[in-house]
């Protein structure tokens, strides 16, 4: 794709990155076949190719309108288009840059601005978010359905094993998961303990920065990244940990990008690159120990039916498609097939709040595909997807690591 970026931006870091991404696009349209919003709306401007043209026009100095911003807002940033693209277009980075510039050119007003500010300032604060979740559960039966969906019931976390192994890893508590699914990290700690690895949390680490970053507060997202790096760095510097474990695939994508986000920061660039290199999704960690796990779990006479929803951040962002499925199969589950497994469930961070109609349609479509095989439980790998899916079904939705933990407990 030929570009003629405006003089005001072409020699900036943002301009150079955007130009390099745009020039990779060959207009082939393969991306339209896997774009959830294009499948629903049938509008070229709600496809990756259409949004790329909008961003190109914006960077070349053409007018930006609220309609431009609407088409960018409707993007889930699921990155299914990246998996499909034969040219390797880094669409996720481009759309983040485009949204940021669109917000600068056409400032938000009224309710839209207020809701986004509230999400940016409320969700990433784990203490405040947790307090609101606890209060919400106290009055949950009285809440309207739209709010009740956002206040899930929680399973007891259970015991966190003491750090007793020579091998140690640190995990990110995050901002939403401690309040919405505290059982996930505790289950992870027990599974890793059984595999000879001790899992610890760094108390000063918090939100990965994805919430602020994807709501166009890039400076706030970088501040979150620096705080987490500071929290982990003493453990890294002393050589006490071999990996930083992510139990929410959405956080994993963000933390693996710290090296990119902070590449021009003279203080944090080197540390950020090291943190990104050490970051592992829990699926990568367990997969590396799969032989040991299989030895602990005798093959069942009748494998238990289960269906797995692969979050977009896992299959398109982290490129770990099939990894969790292999672990679950090895642990004695019989996975049922999922039609259009590449499509997003509609959660997408704060998307379910900002684009509720599209989000609900995508959720219902995904649940129909997941439940078609008759499995009695849905497994996933990201707290946002789990909560979103659970709001539309009575079928239990759990993190896959909790199911592995239950299998190990059964055969202990």
What can you tell me about this protein's structure?
- With 412 residues, this protein is α/β, with parallel strands linked by helices.
- Among the domains are: 7-105, Orthogonal Bundle (Fumarate Reductase Iron-sulfur Protein, Chain B, domain 2), CATH 1.10.1060; 297-410, Rossmann fold.
- Helix content is 54%, strand content 7%.
- It has helices at residues 7-10, 13-24, 36-41, 48-59, 66-73, 80-84, 91-105, 110-122, 126-138, 145-148, 177-180, 183-194, 210-214, 218-237, 249-256, 258-261, 269-278, 282-288, 290-296, 312-317, 323-330, 351-354, 356-371, 383-390, 400-410, and strands at 167-171, 197-201, 244-246, 279-281, 304-308, 333-335, 378-380, 397-399.
- The strands form two sheets. A four-stranded parallel beta sheet has the order 2-1-3-4. It has a four-stranded parallel beta sheet with strand order 6-5-7-8, with helices on both faces.
- Strand 7 (378-380), helix 24 and strand 8 (397-399) form a beta-alpha-beta unit.
- Helix 2 (13-24) packs across helix 7.
- The longest helix has 20 residues, at 218-237.
- The radius of gyration is 21 Å and the shape is globular.
- The N and C termini lie far apart (58 Å).
Briefly summarize what is shown.
The chain has 25 helices and eight strands. It is an alpha/beta fold and 412 residues long. α24 (383-390) links the parallel β7 (378-380) and β8 (397-399).
Question: What is the topology?
Answer:
Elements: H1 7-10, H2 13-24, H3 36-41, H4 48-59, H5 66-73, H6 80-84, H7 91-105, H8 110-122, H9 126-138, H10 145-148, E1 167-171, H11 177-180, H12 183-194, E2 197-201, H13 210-214, H14 218-237, E3 244-246, H15 249-256, H16 258-261, H17 269-278, E4 279-281, H18 282-288, H19 290-296, E5 304-308, H20 312-317, H21 323-330, E6 333-335, H22 351-354, H23 356-371, E7 378-380, H24 383-390, E8 397-399, H25 400-410
Parallel strand pairs: 1-2, 1-3, 3-4, 5-6, 5-7, 7-8
């Amino acid at each position: 794709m030929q570009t003629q970026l405006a003089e005001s931006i072409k020699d900036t870091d943002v301009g150079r990155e955007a130009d390099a991404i745009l020039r990779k696009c060959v207009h082939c349209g393969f991306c339209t076949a896997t774009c959830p919003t294009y499948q629903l709306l049938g509008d070229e401007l709600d496809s990756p190719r259409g949004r790329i043209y909008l961003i190109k026009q914006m960077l070349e100095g053409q007018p930006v309108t609220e309609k431009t911003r609407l088409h960018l807002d409707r993007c889930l940033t699921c990155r299914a288009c990246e998996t499909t693209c034969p040219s390797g277009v880094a669409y996720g980075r481009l759309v983040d840059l485009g949204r940021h510039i669109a917000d600068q050119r056409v400032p938000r007003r009224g309710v839209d601005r207020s809701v986004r500010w509230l999400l940016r300032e409320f969700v990433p604060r784990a203490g405040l978010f947790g307090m609101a979740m606890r209060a919400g559960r106290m009055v949950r039966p009285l809440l309207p359905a739209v709010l009740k969906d956002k206040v899930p019931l929680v399973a007891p976390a259970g015991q966190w094993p003491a750090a007793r192994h020579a091998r140690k890893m640190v995990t990110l508590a995050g901002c939403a998961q401690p309040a919405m699914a505290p059982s996930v990290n505790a289950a992870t700690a027990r599974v890793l303990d059984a595999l000879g690895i001790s899992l610890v949390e760094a108390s000063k680490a918090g939100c990965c920065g994805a919430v602020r970053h994807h709501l166009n507060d890039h400076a706030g997202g970088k501040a979150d990244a620096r705080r987490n790096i500071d929290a982990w760095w003493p453990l890294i510097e002393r050589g006490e940990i071999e990996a930083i474990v992510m139990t929410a695939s959405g956080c994993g994508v963000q933390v693996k990008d710290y090296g990119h986000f902070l590449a021009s920061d003279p203080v944090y660039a080197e540390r950020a690159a090291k943190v990104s290199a050490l970051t592992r999704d829990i699926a990568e960690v367990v997969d590396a120990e799969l032989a040991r796990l299989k030895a602990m779990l005798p093959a069942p006479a009748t494998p238990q039916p289960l269906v797995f929803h692969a979050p977009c951040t896992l299959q398109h962002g982290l490129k770990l498609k099939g990894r969790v499925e292999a672990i679950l199969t090895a642990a004695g589950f019989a996975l049922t097939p999922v039609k259009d497994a590449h499509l997003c469930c509609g959660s997408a961070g704060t998307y379910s709040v900002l684009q509720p109609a599209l989000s609900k349609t995508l959720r219902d479509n995904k649940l129909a595909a997941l439940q078609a095989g008759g499995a009695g439980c849905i497994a996933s790998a990201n707290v946002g997807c789990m909560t979103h899916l659970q709001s539309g079904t009575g079928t239990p939705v759990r993190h896959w690591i909790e199911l592995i933990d239950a299998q190990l407990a059964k055969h202990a």
